[in-house]
Design a protein that fits this description.
The complex is a heterodimer.
Chain A lengths: L11 H5 L23 H22 L4 H29 L2 E4 L7 H19 L2 H17 L26 E2 L16 E6 L10 E5 L19 E5 L11 E3 L4 E3 L6 E3 L5 E4 L8 E2 L1 E3 L5 E3 L16
Helix pairs in contact in A: 2-3
Chain B lengths: L1 H13 L4 H13 L4 H8 L2 E2 L6 H21 L8 E3 L11 E3 H11 L4 H29 L7 H23 L4 H15 L5 H9 L8 H31 L13 E6 H26 L5 H4 L18 H9 L5 E3 L2 E3 L3 H16 L1 H9 L15 H21 L1 H7 L4 H37 L2
Classes of the chains: A alpha+beta, B mainly alpha.
Chain lengths: 311, 455
């Protein structure tokens, strides 16, 4: 079978040489009337190609700016493109041809013959009914067995989503590893802190605030978590996990720049605006005898966005 | 006789008068096992002509350009997150620790000659690729080009859009700048939100809990080999079927479901489409030369404790970003299990949108009880319901796209962000039906006028 089947292209030659009757065959009158269009637009395009190409080489060897380099290249490409498109457009008007669409729908014998052939071929296999079914079963078992390969991709999550690097008594340090004392944040503001020795632990990052005026609304069960008005929250957004990095001092809220989730720092970091659904987890703090801020223990809930077994 | 026609066509194409082409034709015939009949016929392949058919070609040519520019970029990109200290020519970042990947992107952008141009052309080509595919699909939709016998090809085309968009996301993630890392973080969290399997899937895909140090090396072969191969394969299938079935055509004299009218591939169509290829390449090169895109050196390297305002994904992901921003924080607690709110806009919504679209040719055929063969296109106003559905759908995606940049719009126009969000939340439900109704009325009126007056 040739692909060309059903592709009896007709033009004037075929139409007059007694080819198969083609509905509405033959050459159409040119779309464009009048004489041959001028050649100069194509020539201008080709000129732009030459000039642009030379310009590109010059721009490259002289390390000219991106605009010159790309501009000259663009001119060359556009010039050539315009010339060819213009020329092709002109030719398209010259020669309009027609032919049949491949039309299997009005050729039922052909489709039936194909189906019959296939049935016969497949029948050779399915004649051994039990064996054929076993083949399907075996291939299915084999395919399923290969799924285990996926296990090589990474560790099972295990408990990793539930724990961070915070441990009882572990000191808060800045990103540079400087321990955080009670004297910090005397002037207000906020501080990014990590567990000592774990400044690369992304899931342990916290934002530390100091509200000494008693404005902090203590949450039930967390009365001892904010000594002297120091309060720390996980800095990973509970929406989709961006760093909640915008502290708005006047409103005493922490906002996530990604999707504008906003958390009320005075009220347990509950979400007050934006798409986040859960408060930022709070880290239980203490102040040790040397005046350093330390964690009482790890977070009591998973940090970051929710997941299926997080409850 | 056959040779005469072949050489005539080739001669016209290349302006050559004598034997080289004739010899070439003989050579081809010999090596195709007497296939010059096939070659002859295919050289005269009929291409109907309409500006609308150019849209798919833009997409194809973007892909070609992406491969060419991508190969250049691959010569300089290092898919490693090993920490290095930047020593390149961009002063503000000198001495800053960063991943080797990010450092290599800075180098190829700022220190490799023509590197910035190629990178920007690559990025622009990706943006235009997805755009061209979308508009191409809309054209198919509104003119009914997906009807039998082209249902399967709609499926391939649609899958292509999906794969291309996903590969764009992968490419956006590779430079390991702040925005690309933020995008990966969001992708990780969305994967995590899937019930039952989410956390395991996320851990397997990313190789552990985010941020992992191997993710760039993992994305790289997917972006430069796996998905491009899939795209090339799908394009091949799509174009192969198009070739065998011929283009659809708009109604016109001599054109019907059995007869295709157009210009022959050689010389007219071949010349024109090569010209279009170069025009697409030229326009994208001009973009890359003059319009800055994704200036990664301004964003800085990704770290898990940085984030930035006005962070947007590439535009074709904007509707998804918008849905994630608009959906309220309804984390659902089911006993000891959690169904995170983001699951609905980021996983369920795309499924709701893509599944009916994928099956659209069959749904449309069932709804209209029309399973006949159609090679002649309809105009949108001839099918008011289809026009209405399409317009409503585009409106929905547009509202979501705006929502994807709500912070930018709010600050640019001095609006209150919560008010804007609430407005968009309402518009998501109100605007699509209104636009659909309006489109329906306009289309019906036009078709009635057309029936009455023939104009």
């Amino acid at each position: 079978m040739e692909v060309a089947d059903g592709n009896a292209v007709t033009d004037r030659e075929l139409g007059t040489s007694g080819g198969p009757p083609v509905p509405d065959g033959g050459r159409r009158p040119p779309v464009r009337s009048g004489g041959t269009p001028p050649g100069w637009p194509a020539a201008v395009g080709l000129l732009a190609t030459v000039v642009g190409s030379v310009g590109f080489v010059l721009a490259f060897v002289t390390s000219a700016s991106n605009a010159w380099l790309g501009g000259s290249l663009a001119a060359a490409l556009l010039g050539l493109g315009m010339a060819l498109a213009y020329w092709g457009r002109d030719l398209a008007g010259d020669e309009v041809i027609s032919g049949p669409y491949p039309a299997p729908h009005d050729d039922p014998p052909r489709a039936a013959a194909l189906g019959g052939d296939l049935e016969q071929s497949v029948g050779v296999i399915t004649r051994r009914g039990a064996l054929a079914k076993f083949l399907v079963f075996a291939v299915g078992v084999f395919a399923l067995s290969q799924v285990v390969i996926l296990g090589a991709l990474g560790p099972w999550p295990g408990r990793s989503l539930f724990v961070t690097a915070w441990r009882p008594g572990r000191r808060l340090v800045t990103i540079d590893g400087e321990p955080v004392t009670r004297d910090v944040l005397a002037g207000g503001g906020s501080l990014v802190a990590f567990p000592e020795g774990h400044t690369d632990a992304a899931n342990s990052q916290i934002a530390l605030f100091h509200f000494s005026g008693g404005e902090l609304k203590l949450q039930p069960g967390r009365e001892t978590w904010s000594p002297e008005g120091f309060v720390a929250y996980s800095r990973i957004c509970t929406h989709v996990g961006c760093a909640v990095s915008q502290y708005l001092d006047e409103a005493k809220v922490l906002a996530c720049p990604c999707h504008q989730s906003t958390f009320d720092l005075l009220d347990g970091a509950k979400p007050v605006a934006g798409p986040a659904g859960r408060p930022l987890p709070q880290l239980p703090l203490a102040i040790d005898k040397d005046g350093y801020l330390v964690a009482q223990r790890d977070f009591t809930e998973p940090v970051g966005p929710g997941f299926w077994d997080a409850g | 006789m056959s040779d005469r026609r072949l050489t005539k066509s080739l001669r016209t194409a290349f302006g050559v008068r004598r034997s080289p082409l004739r010899r070439g034709a003989g050579y081809v015939d010999e090596n195709l096992g007497g296939g010059s009949r096939l070659l002859r016929d295919e050289l005269r392949h009929i291409f109907p002509d309409s500006w609308a058919f150019f849209l798919g070609e833009i997409a194809l040519y973007c892909f070609i350009l992406l491969v060419v520019t991508g190969v250049f970029l691959a010569l300089f990109f290092r898919a490693s997150q090993a920490e290095v200290v930047y020593q390149g020519s961009y002063q503000p970042l000198v001495g800053v620790p960063m991943s080797d990947a990010y450092s290599s992107v800075l180098d190829l952008s700022l220190d490799v000659r023509a590197g910035l141009l190629v990178r920007q052309v690559h990025h622009w080509a990706a943006l235009v690729f997805v755009g061209a595919l979308m508009i191409h699909l809309l054209r198919m939709f509104f003119t009914g080009a997906y009807r039998r016998p082209r249902r399967l090809n709609w499926l391939f085309g649609f899958t292509l859009l999906f794969v291309v968009g996903f590969n764009g996301l992968m490419g956006y993630s590779l430079p390991d700048d702040l925005l690309s890392g933020t995008g990966l973080r969001v992708a990780y969290s969305i994967t995590e939100s899937i019930p039952f399997v989410g956390p395991t899937m996320a851990s397997l895909l990313f190789g552990g809990e985010f941020p992992t140090t191997g993710i760039i090396a993992r994305i790289y072969p997917v972006h430069v080999f796996l998905l491009p191969a899939a795209i090339a394969g799908l394009l091949g299938l799509h174009l192969g079927m198009l070739w065998l079935q011929r283009h659809t055509q708009f109604p016109g004299p001599g054109r019907d479901d059995r007869t295709v009218v157009g210009s022959p591939m050689v010389p007219a169509y071949a010349l024109r489409t090569t010209g279009y290829l170069l025009l697409v390449a030229g326009v994208l090169t001009a973009f890359g030369a003059l319009l800055q895109i994704n200036p990664v050196w301004l964003y800085g390297p990704y770290t898990a404790w940085d984030s930035t305002t006005a962070a947007q994904p590439d535009w074709y992901m904007g509707w998804l970003e918008g849905a994630v921003r608009l959906f309220p924080g309804w984390d659902i607690q089911l006993g000891s299990f959690v169904l995170p709110a983001v699951f609905w806009p980021a996983v369920v919504l795309p499924g709701l949108i893509f599944t009916p679209l994928l099956l659209w040719p069959w749904l449309d055929g069932m709804a209209l009880r029309d399973h006949g063969f159609h090679n002649v296109l309809t105009f949108p106003s001839e099918r008011p319901w289809r026009a209405a559905l399409g317009a409503g759908f585009v409106t929905l995606l547009s509202v979501l796209l705006v929502a994807g940049g709500d912070d930018v719009f709010a600050s640019a126009f001095g609006l209150s962000l919560p008010v804007l969000i609430r407005t968009l939340q309402v518009l998501v439900f109100v605007a699509p039906p209104l636009v659909a109704l309006f489109s329906y009325l306009v289309a019906r009126r036009r078709s009635q006028r057309w029936l009455a007056t023939g104009r």
